Amino acid sequence: MADEQAIADILNEIRPEFDFAAARNFVTAGMLDSFDMMTLVSELDAQYHIRIPGMEIVPENFENLASILALVERCKRA
């Protein structure tokens, strides 16, 4: 089961210098760039045994922990 803390842990491995729990928008705050998003997608795919389609890899799906969790849950149902 995916939860925000598990996603935050993955994000902290990718970019340990940021506090993802406190941020509102990771992309506009400069906390995640396109390379980081691809790394995160790979980690989420592996951890949750899902496949995130390319059309879902857009900044709106990576704004905060809730939007990433929603993306994972959508992909789990697909």
Q: Can you give keywords for this protein?
A:
globular, mainly alpha, 78 residues, 0% strand
Rg, rounded, reads: 11 Å
Give unreliable regions as ranges: none
**Largest sheet: number of strands, sense, barrel closure:** none
Class from helix and strand fractions: mainly alpha
- Report the order of strands and helices: HHH
Helix fraction bin = 40-55%
* SS element count, helices: 3
End-to-end Cα distance, whole Å, is 15 Å
CATH class: Mainly Alpha
CATH-derived topology? Non-ribosomal Peptide Synthetase Peptidyl Carrier Protein, Chain A
- What would the principal axes of the Cα set say about the shape? globular
CATH architecture: Orthogonal Bundle
Describe the overall structure.
- This protein has about 80 residues and is mainly α.
- It has one domain (about 5-75): Non-ribosomal Peptide Synthetase Peptidyl Carrier Protein, Chain A.
- It is built from three helices and no strands.
- It is globular and about 30 Å long.
- It starts with a helix and ends with a helix.
